[in-house]
Amino acid sequence: MPSKKTDAPKHSEAAGTQTPDRANTNAKLQSLEAFRSDATGQALRTNQGVKVADNQNTLKAGARGPSLLEDFIMREKITHFDHERIPERIVHARGTGAHGYFQSYGNHAELTKAGFLQDPEKITPVFVRFSTVQGPRGSGDTVRDVRGFAVKFYTDEGNFDLVGNNMPVFFIQDAIKFPDFVHAVKPEPHNEMPTGGSAHDTFWDFVSLVPESAHMVIWAMSDRAIPRSLRMMEGFGVHTFRLINAEGVASFVKFHWKPRQGVHSVLWDEAQKLAGKDTDYHRRDLWDAIEKGDYPEWELGVQIVPEADEHKFDFDLLDPTKIIPEELVPVTLLGKMVLNRNPDNFFAETEQVAFCPGHIVPGIDFSNDPLLQGRLFSYTDTQISRLGGPNFHEIPINRPVAPNHSSQRDAMHRMTIDKGRASYEPNSIDGGWPKETPPAAQDGGFESYQERIEAHKIRQRSESFGDHFSQARLFFQSMSPNEQQHIIKAYSFELGKVEREEIRIREVNEILANIDLKLAAAVAANLGLPAPKQGTVQVKGSKPAQSKALSQMNHPGDVGIKGRKIAVVVADGVDASRVDALVKALEAQSARPMLLGPTSAPVKTADGKALPVAASIEGMPSIMFDGIVVPGGQGSIDALAASGVAKHFLLEGYKHLKAMLLAKEAKALVGGLGLKEDKGLLLGDDQNTVEAFVKAVEGHRVWEREAAAEAIPA
Ligand code: HDE
C-alpha cells in the first residue's frame, strides 16, 4: 500500500486481544457522560415526577364506562407518543452509529496545532454515524449507494466533525447544484419509487446531462457502493482542507480513513437478496462485532500538499470531483480510531446526532472548494428544522466535552440555565465574562487562516474544473478484471431500468464513451445499442494512468479472518468431534463460526447426543456468511444432500465465490451440484486443508471462480 506512517505504528492491540488499557479507556470516556440514565430499580413516574400506580388502565367512569378527560397520566403519555417522530434527514436518513475513541500516533505539531493530534497519550472520544444517502430511514442497508462516514471528535478544544463518505469524490462541483442532484436521485415524485436506489430515469437523466458527475457515478457503479460491512469501508473527507501549525504555516490536506479490516464488498446478487432477507444487515454486523469485542479500527491519514504546490497538479485541488492519486502524494497516517461501544438508545444518539463540516477546531481550516463552502451553511440550517431549533448543540450526543459559554440565549428547548445578567459582550456587569481568547500557539481562540483574495464578484466555474473524464478513466483502468466486469454489469443493470431510450443513449455516447470505449461498448451491447466509435470530447488522460489504491483488491486489511462469519452446516448424523475441531480451529483465528441445522432444533450427532444449533439454514442463508463449512459424518452429508434448502445454500455460496470447506464424504454431493474444487472449494478437514480454507476466507472471495460460477443458477 503506498501509505507511509509518521512515528511508530501503534498496533499494540493484536487482532482479537484486549489490552488492560481498554477498560481504563472506556471508564475515562464514560466519565464524560453524566447524562446517561438507567431506570433499573427506579419507580415509573410521569414527566412531572409523580409515581404511577396503574399503567394498564385509563381512568373511566365505571369499568365499562367512558374515559375521563381528567386522566392527566394517560393524556401525557399519549401526547408524548403522538409527537415521537421528528423529520428524517433529507439525505443520509438511514444510518447506524457507534462510540469509540481516537488516539494520535505521535506529535504532529509540524502539521497542525490541533491538540488531539499532538499527544499520543490523549484519548479523544468519537461518535460515528454511517449511512446510505438515497433511501428513507426504514430502507435496506445493502442497496447500491454511497455510504456516509461521519465522525464527531469530542476534542478538549471543541467538537471537530469530519463529515465524509466512503468514496473520495462527489457528483457535483458547486453547492448550488445539490438540490437538483438530490431531487434527481431521490425516489421519483409521482410514485415515490424506487426506494434506496439510483436505477431510475430522473437520476440517469441528470447525470447524463451533467458530465462533472462522471467520476463519482463510476465509483457508485463499482463494488464500493455495495460494501460487505461498514467495518470494511474506507472513508474520505472528500474536499481539500487545511491544517495549520503553531507558526501559522498551512498545508492542504485530504483526509482518509483506512480500515484495518480491509476494503471488501458483497456481490450485486448478494446485495439485492440481503436487502430482502435482512434489511438491517450492515447495522446488525456492526452491532454484533462491537458486542462480541471485535472492535473495528481505522487509521486516519492525510495527503499533505504544501501551500506552494497548490497549482502543481493537472487538476484543481478545490474541485471535489477529483482525487489526488496516492502515487503523487502518499497517505501519511496520523492516528487510529477504535469503535468499541454501541449506543444505548438509537433515537437519542444516532438519530439526534447533528454533524456539520463547519465544526472545526484551531489547527484545522477550510479550503475554497465551492461544494464545501455551501455545506458550511447547509448543515446547521437543516438541524434547525430537523431537531426543532438552534439549541441542538445541547442535546447530549452533540454536547462538546469542552466547556461552552457564550451570550447566546433562549430559543426552543433551551436546557442550560445561564446565571448572570449580562448576555452581551462587552459587559461590565458580569466582570466582562465570558471573554475572548486571543489566538495562540496552543489553547488559543480560533483564528481563520489569512488568505489573500483579489477577485471579481462573479458567478463562474473555474476553467481548472473543466476535465470531467480523465480521473473516471483512471478509476476504470485501475480496476482488476473482475471489478471492471462488475462495473459494466452495474451500468447495464441500472440503465436497463431506465424507461427512456434517449437517456440510455446519452449516457453511453456522451459519458461512457469519454471514460473508456471498451466500457461503453460492453454496456451498449447489453442495452442493445450500437457501440460508440469515439467519445464526444478530447480527454487528456491522467498521470499516472493507473492507481493501485483505487482497487479494493489492494486493500486486504491486516486482521486476518477476525470477526468473519462462518456457517457450519450440520444435520442428524454429524460427527461431533469433527465439528468441535473445526469450530475450535476457526475460533483460534478469531473468526465467528455459527452452527446451522435444517431447523432451529438441535441435531442428533452420530453418537446419539443432541447438538444445539444457532439458527436454521433457511433463516440464515449463505449470503449472510463469509465462508461455509460442512463437517463430516455420512448421515449428516446424506441428509443435506436430500434437502433442497441445503443444496441451494451450497449452490449460492459457490455462486457468490465464498470459501467452502466440506468433509471428504461430500465429494459426491459437490459433484452432483456441478461445483468444482478450486482454491477456495476444499474437500477434507485435516490441518492443511483448514489452513487453505482460512486463507481463502482471508482473500474475501474466490475471484478465480467467477467465470465458472456464471453457469450456476442465482
Ligand atoms: Fe451532505 N448533507 N451535503 N455531503 N452529508 C447532509 O445534513 C449537503 C456532501 C454527508 O450521519 C444533511 O444533517 C449539501 C458531501 C454525510 O448525520 C444536509 C451538500 C459529503 C451526511 C447535507 C452536501 C456529504 C450528510 C442532511 C453539497 C461527503 C450524514 C442531514 C454542497 C464529503 C451525516 C444533515 C449524518 C448529511 C447537505 C454534499 C456527506 C442536507 C448542501 C460532498 C455523511 O445538510
Short description:
With 714 residues, the chain is α/β, with parallel strands linked by helices. Helix content is 27%, strand content 15%. The structure holds CIS-heme D hydroxychlorin gamma-spirolactone 17R, 18S.
Overview of the structural elements:
By secondary structure, the chain is α/β, with parallel strands linked by helices. About 25% of the residues lie in helices and about 15% in strands. α14 links the parallel β12 and β13. The chain folds into 3 domains: about 325 residues, Beta Barrel (Catalase HpII,  Chain A, domain 1); about 80 residues, Up-down Bundle (Hemocyanin, N-terminal domain); about 140 residues, Rossmann fold (3-Layer(aba) Sandwich), CATH 3.40.50.880. It is globular and about 90 Å long. The chain contains 19 helices and 19 strands. CIS-heme D hydroxychlorin gamma-spirolactone 17R, 18S binds next to β3, β4, β5 and α9.
Summarize the SSE layout with pairings:
Layout: E1 3-5, H1 21-30, H2 72-82, E2 95-104, E3 124-132, E4 147-155, E5 158-165, H3 178-185, H4 201-209, H5 214-220, E6 235-236, E7 241-244, E8 250-259, H6 268-277, H7 281-291, E9 297-306, E10 331-341, H8 346-351, E11 364-365, H9 370-386, H10 470-477, H11 481-496, H12 501-515, H13 517-527, E12 565-569, H14 576-587, E13 592-597, E14 603-604, E15 610-611, E16 615-616, E17 627-630, H15 634-641, H16 644-655, E18 659-662, H17 667-672, E19 681-683, H18 687-698, H19 706-709
Parallel strand pairs: 1-10, 12-13, 12-17, 13-16, 17-18, 18-19
Antiparallel strand pairs: 2-3, 2-10, 3-4, 4-5, 6-8, 7-8, 7-11, 8-9, 9-10, 14-15
Helix pairs in contact: 3-4, 4-12, 5-10, 11-13, 12-13
Bound molecules: CIS-heme D hydroxychlorin gamma-spirolactone 17R, 18S (HDE).
The site of CIS-heme D hydroxychlorin gamma-spirolactone 17R, 18S has 25 residues, from strand 3, strand 4, strand 5 and helix 9.
